[in-house]
Structures are given as structure tokens and as C-alpha cells.
Amino acid sequence: MSDPLVALTLLAVLIGLLALGVWVAFALIAVALIAIVFFSNAPVGLVLATTLWGHSHSWALAALPLFILMGEILLRSRLSQDMFSGIAPWIGRFPGRLLHVNILGCAIFAAVSGSSAATAATIGRMSVPELKARGYPEIMILGTLAGSATLGLLIPPSIILIVYGVATEQSIARLFVAGILPGIMLVLLFAAYVAGYAWMRPLSIPAEPAHNWREKISASRRLIPVALLIAGVIGSIYTGIASPTDAAALGVVLSVILAFATGGFSWVKLGEALMSATRTSAMIAFILVAAAFLSIAMGFTGLPRNLAAWIGSLGLSQGALLAALTIFFIALGCFLDGISVVVLTTSIIMPMVSAAGIDPLWFGIYLVIVVEMSQITPPVGFNLFVIQGLTGIDILRVAKAALPFFFLLVLGVILITLFPAIVTWLPGLMGR
Length: 432
Fold this sequence. Notes:
The chain is mainly alpha-helical. It has helices at residues 3-19, 24-39, 44-54, 63-75, 79-91, 99-113, 116-134, 138-149, 159-168, 172-178, 180-200, 213-220, 224-238, 244-262, 267-301, 303-314, 318-333, 338-355, 360-374, 382-391, 395-418, 421-430.
């Protein structure tokens, strides 16, 4: 059977299993077994055993459950309320006023949670009732929350960057640092859009009371705990004091201390956080191990190598290849969550990316931003589901509100493509 037919057969099996509701990990293992048994001569039992064992005790992967646990602890603490109280006095006079709380709140919480869904749930629970009560337009409340919550995938510590780093054997520390400037860029793009909306529709934005400097500084004290947590986690990685795994352990310790110190946290909630983090971590780890088995199986069939050679023979420019991949990832993200998109595609995509001369570090950030788009596109936009659950608003209305932020993410991809130093500059400084 020719390579295209083999690829189409395996793809059809995978899509069919996913459409039937089979767990992603089981679907990946099933496709890998079919690939080895029917399209290679490899000993299937030996390959399965060695792959599952070899990829289930990665030290780099240990950071994943720790960062998830840190986010679950903070999700149950008073951190979000303190963030709102600390940020609001400073931005009450900006164009768009308290709509910027969603953007800045999501950016700050993304820097301590690593999860897009957790960011949307935490900030949304705090900001949506407050902004509605003050009379802000619903479309902007929902849009800023849905769009800005995607920053949880990019701003370190990012769970999906850990998954990408493990799957592609890239430095997780360098990936974390590479996500900082693109994250700031997206925050500025979102804030500029809100300001533009406010200038065009000034009557839709309610007035806010003025705060003097004394009140602003007093409110800022509520931001000290989260600032210390961000500095402890990200600062220790950037300076080289700690590895991402060590920094994750430090983050868990600091988050527990902060959660108890700020009040509203208990040992019962800590137990809930542990159980939730365990379930999430087990699910992701299972998918990663299954994806590793699929990657090995694809190697035995020779498909990735032949596909990379075929792509190379087409003579596509890097821009043309990235444009095609962007459309492919957006389409795939309409039906799968971000982590599944990464683990499903890296074994196939990375050979052609390497053949095209694209920096895999830069490609990781590009991939995460494209996956961010899938978080706010129906039918499987996780942020849309989270916000629908919080507000009870129809998911199509939420998706419509998030549409401008989808295009801002597209603009972000264009900017890092035109100016790759946005991604590579800070990691480059780490090597000096």
C-alpha cells in the first residue's frame, strides 16, 4: 500500500474512533497498533512495553502535575478577588476602564496557573458579575474574558508548553522564557482593541470613580502575594537557579502558603485541589504516553520521513508552509482540545518543520498561539464552554463575542512570523 493510502487509512481510523467518543489516549494506542501490525515488521508487544515504560518516568514531565496542582490551589483561594481589588483602581481612567481587568487579570493568573480553562473560570467567576452590575456591554465582557483567558496556554508556566517540550525534546525552560514577550504582545493587542472600542462607543462604557494615589498604592498591596509567586517561579527559571520541575515544586509550596495566608482556604479545599490535579495530570500523562507510542509506530512505518521528504520536494517557502499549517491546526482545533492537538501532530509535523529550516523553539510558541485560537472556536472551544457554564449564555453568543480576539491572535501569529525575535530574543539571552 502506498504512503498516501496508509496515511489516509490511519487518519480515517483515528477520526472514526474519536467520533465514536473513544478516549483520545485509547484512540492513539489503537491507531499505533494498527500501524505496527499491518504496515511494519516491528515486534508490537516489545515496542508497546518499552515505549510505555520509557516515556512514563520522564523527569521533565514531573513539572506538569506540580504546576496543575499550583493552579488548582490558587483556583480555590482568594487570589482572584485580591487581583481585582488591586488592579481596578489603576485602570479606572483608561479607555475601556474596568474591561482591562479581564485582560490584566487573565495575564497575571496565567503566570501562576498554566491553564487556559482555569484562568477563564477563576477570572470569570470574579469579573463577570462585577462588570455586569456596573453596566459594561455584555459582548465586551464575554469577549475580553474568552480571548484573554487563552493567555493561560502561552504565558509561563504553561502546561501545553511542557507537553510540547516533552513531545519534541525541547528545553522547557527556554520555551517558558520564549513565551514571555509574545504573551505581553498579545496583552497589548487586546488592550488596544478595548481602547479602540471605547473610543468608538464612549457611551457604552460606564463612568468609574476616580482614585487618588494613596488609594491606588493601598490597593496595590493586594498584588504583592501574586507578584512574589510569579517572581519565585519565573525568576528562578530565568536566572537558572531552578529547573522548571524545581520551580514547580517551589510554586506549590508558595501557593499553599499564600492560599492559607489570604484566607478562605482550608485543608478540605487542599484535598479537593489534590484530587482534581491528580485526575487532570493522569489524563494528560496517559495521552502523552499514548502519543509517544503512536510516534514510535509512525517511525516504523516510515511515514514521517517520507512525508518530510515529500514536503521538501515541493519547494514550499516557510511562509507558505506556515500558512498551510495554520489552517490545518485551526481546523483540527475545532474538534480537539489543545493538548490533544499538540500530541497528535508533533510526530508528523516536526520532521517537515525541521526540513523547512524552522526553529523548533519558535515553532512551539507559534503552535501554542494557533492552539489558543481553537480555545475560542466552536464546537470544541474549551474557553467557550467554561464561560457558558459561568454565565448560562448561549455558546454561539459567547463565540461571537470572542471573534475579534480570534483575529487578534491571527495578527499575533503574523507578527511573530515577521519578527521572530519577539520569540527568540529572551531565550537567546539565557545562553550568554
